[in-house]
Amino acid sequence: MARYNVGQPRGNEFRESADDYLSALRAHFEAVFGNNLPASISSTTPLEYILTVPAVWSEAAVEKTRRCAEEAGMGEESTLRTVSEPEAAAVHALGHNTLYNFSVGDTVVVCDAGGGTVDLITYRITALQPVLRVTEAAPGRGDCCGSTLLNHRFDSFLRNKLSSHPEWREEMLDEALASFERQIKRNFNGSAESVYHIPIPGILESPRHDISSARYCLKGSDLIDIFEPVIEEVLKLVQQQITATDTTKGEVKAVLMVGGFGESSYLRERVRQICAPHKIQVYKPPHAWTAVVRGAVMKGLAEAGSRNTALHVMGRQARKNIGTESAKPYDPAIHPIKQRIWSAANNRYEVNTYDWFIKKGDTVSEKKPFLLPYHSEYRVPADHLGNIKITIVKCSDPERTDPPTFADEGAVKTIANLQIPLTRIRMSSLKTRAAEDGNEYYIVDFSLRVTCHSSETVYELVHKRQNYGRVSAEYV
Q1: What is the number of alpha carbons within 13 Å of residue 389 lying toward its C-beta?
Q2: What is the pTM of this model?
Q3: With 254 labelled, which of 319, 325, 387, 416 sits at a CA distance of 20 to 30 A?
Q4: C-alpha to C-alpha distance for 119 and 238, rounded to whole angstroms
Q5: pLDDT score recorded for residue 194
């Protein structure tokens, strides 16, 4: 399927556009909030914002969005939260469990089909009472094949049909595209016999161009041609998500369709067609169009302690391998000789290796953070400790069953470079040792605490069980 350039701003223009949009959105909300509540309430009620982000976004994209939200006045690093869109949608959709009569052990796929992206996530129900508890049953997947592509395909279709009309002008497309967005795209049910009349203001009648009374006659068969390439991309994702689920622990029982594109009866019918042979039901939960924002608010309220959420996600499956890059002393018993390099600073041979603390498919949870131990030494006397750089890397090479150990063995990319501020640690709390060179050294044994949340990873400095807070991360 062809991809489209939708004229997105780049570089600083993108950042400024996002800042402006989020600032206007915040101002509008606060104005509505203030106008609908007494001043005594609106002026004293604390506001928190939650950002929902597509699951297919990179860590760098999520971080840039967070920074834009901070610039827009939506909160600071410690208070501004993000959540992946499919998980937020699942919180809302599975909150209506009584409608589907799910049981413990049932597996459900949530398909969040929106305008830009389609994200899928699979949950296995582990408990129904006192609250619904689930764990991911397969790594999620997604792609940029949302309903916005239908708009681009319709745009191209209409241009091809009408560009030879003597009265054709570019601005005539505006009302036609609005009609397609508001009515036709949402209501088309897949019937080839359907006929829609698209307004083209100012254009003269032309039977050759299917124009009558300033309207273009759009056939259902043409709509099928517009829809099908996008629908096929979504169906491929749904099929892959179902296939990736570990059926030894239970077959997939249902697919829940949410998001704006998920409201499409044509898309849901096509999903039913591929699910029917497997006896998988397809449902559209109430308020499917706004499932993401509703679920995000429910999750935010639960985390704030004001109420219990209808869903607790007990574990998520990692979509990629995540690790660190480090230099280790060369050991001829375990390291290939071609990997060794001479370190003048340490006066020894070393090898650069990857240490993977998360493997693709592992179950991770914010309730079980990772503690990565590190050791550093500083010669006495020293006024303060310095910063240490730690590189976080990822490997999502589908051709590999195991991530590589060395840099030349696979497709490894840097996620972020962390600056560990050892300056936060009080030097009076450190032990010292006398070295063979006659000098005394401070011993700094610290840990990097890595917590995997719904849509972001938090890195913190820990020393002697004391958490010194988040560390600076420069995302690549």
Answers
A1: 8
A2: 0.84
A3: 319
A4: 9
A5: 92
